[in-house]
Design a protein that fits this description.
Helix content: 25-40%
CATH architecture of the largest domain: 3-Layer(aba) Sandwich
Structural class: alpha/beta
Number of helices: 11
Radius of gyration: 20 Å
Distance between the termini: 42 Å
Largest sheet: 7 strands, mixed
Number of domains: 2
Number of strands: 12
Order of helices and strands: EHHEHEHEEHEEHEHHHEEHEEH
């Protein structure tokens, strides 16, 4: 019997009580940066006028080397999932799991019967294109995938495309990958391709709701017809335009490099804990991967109890049993700076009863 997963559970629920170090939400700490806050504040002077999205659309198009007709601005990626579910005529949608649960939730809410393809932890949650049914007329995949942090090769993702199939690739975390080597965002040669991007993660704009869709012009038009008038606010448009500027892209690239180094430090610390847990590693954390995004997925025996005990020590991590394909022994941990990570690893060592010193070169 298949498990029932809470598709509406998100990491922010782990930190609503306040007072906890947030390792549950995958938003870059210290954001939005001061220059972006200043631009958002200045945008408030224009709130009396209706939003005009032309400059922001043009900026997104230029950033990805696409004509503006291939760009649709949305109130975050979440709105895009709803538009895709309600506006496109599909009868056999399939979601590749484990991944972000909003796409499936949106499809179910729109009355679709949703098929699932479950990737396997034993091969590192790698994409298996042959597992996707040939008759699927919509396939939804995250890259890099939340929560597994796996970055799928662009060639394998593009190989899922078929005539008459919509291929939805959620790239909300792609700008956290240095160089974005597997992105499909600028591609126009993949039939039915729809790429989703978000400003939430890198720029810390979850409360603003800013994202966009890249797709063929006819698909963009279909989705736009399902939107209400003026769906994206003036501050969100200003943020979108600002974050496409060359200096912002350079900052994002530097951030991606820093996140990668901080992630390696976290993974190394978790590996030391696993080694210290004994020859069988039954008590130690096992990291899925290789991880490439701003978070890691960890399998840990007794994860639910460990999560509660971590909260008692001041740290919130994300339960992962709400993702189809995962069970109660999985946690998602956001990447933070090394000092925060070291404090977390010390807390985790105490929770699982590990005596191994954690600090060192990593």
């Amino acid at each position: 019997m298949s498990a029932v997963h809470d598709l509406r559970h998100h990491g922010d629920a782990e930190v609503r009580d306040g007072g906890l170090v947030d390792l549950a939400v995958n938003v870059r700490s210290g954001t939005p940066p001061p220059w972006l806050r200043a631009r958002l504040a200045a945008s408030l002077d224009g709130l009396a006028a209706y939003p005009d999205d032309r400059a922001a659309r043009a900026a997104v198009a230029e950033r990805h080397g696409l004509p503006v007709e291939r760009v649709l601005l949305t109130a975050g990626a979440a709105e895009a999932f709803v538009l895709l579910a309600r506006a496109l005529r599909v009868s056999r949608p399939v979601v590749v799991h484990p991944q972000f649960t909003e796409p499936e939730a949106a499809l179910l809410d729109a009355g679709h019967r949703v098929g699932r393809v479950l990737l396997d932890a034993r091969d590192g949650f790698r994409l298996r294109p042959g597992a996707v049914p040939e008759d699927a007329d919509m396939v939804v995949l995250g890259n890099p995938t939340n929560p597994t942090s796996v970055l799928h090769p662009a060639g394998q993702v593009a190989a899922l495309a078929r005539p008459g199939r919509v291929l939805v690739v959620d790239e909300a975390f792609m700008d956290a990958v240095p160089g974005e080597p597997e992105s499909l965002a600028g591609r126009t040669d993949v039939p039915g391709l729809v790429v989703l991007r978000s400003l939430t993660k890198t720029w810390g704009l979850a409360g603003l709701r800013a994202g966009y869709v890249l797709a063929a012009p006819d698909t963009v038009s279909e989705l736009a017809r399902a939107q209400p008038l003026w769906p994206v606010s003036t501050p969100a448009l200003v943020a979108t335009e600002s974050c496409m500027a060359p200096e912002a892209l350079a900052e994002a690239a530097r951030s991606a490099e820093a996140v990668a180094a901080d992630r390696d430090h976290l993974v190394a610390g978790l590996a030391r804990l696993a080694a210290a847990a004994g020859p069988d590693g039954d008590r130690g954390p096992w990291v899925a991967g290789p991880a490439r995004a701003s978070f890691v997925l960890v399998r840990l025996a007794g994860a639910e109890k460990a999560r509660t005990r971590l909260r008692e020590r001041g740290f919130a991590v994300r339960r992962a049993d709400t993702f189809p394909g995962l069970g109660p022994d999985w946690l998602r941990i956001a990447v933070r700076d090394r000092a925060t990570t070291d404090r977390f690893l010390t807390a985790l060592a105490a929770v699982i009863g590990c005596e191994q010193p954690l600090l060192g070169n990593a």
